[in-house]
Amino acid sequence: MKSKGIKPAAELTDKELLKNVKLTKSVLISFSVIFVLLLATCLYITVTKGFGVFSVLPLTFFPILATNIIAHRKMGDEVKKRNLV
């Protein structure tokens, strides 16, 4: 049985690609805002109460942010490659 997975950007149609670019952009922006708020909160807690579990929390979510940035750039590169912009 063939599983339905995520297609690479090169296999998407133009319409699907443009839809995914908008989606990845909105996800990236919202996750970045949440990450900055998390970072600021963790820094505040670390300064006021000392080092604790919450001090390392931003480090655990940074790879997710990096993955989102890379995915958005790949989609953007594919859009430029196809001259859709």
TrEMBL record:
<keyword id="KW-0472">Membrane</keyword>
<keyword id="KW-0812">Transmembrane</keyword>
<feature type="transmembrane region" description="Helical">
    <location>
        <begin position="53"/>
        <end position="71"/>
    </location>
</feature>
<protein>
    <recommendedName>
        <fullName>Redox-active disulfide protein 2</fullName>
    </recommendedName>
</protein>
<keyword id="KW-1133">Transmembrane helix</keyword>
<feature type="transmembrane region" description="Helical">
    <location>
        <begin position="27"/>
        <end position="47"/>
    </location>
</feature>
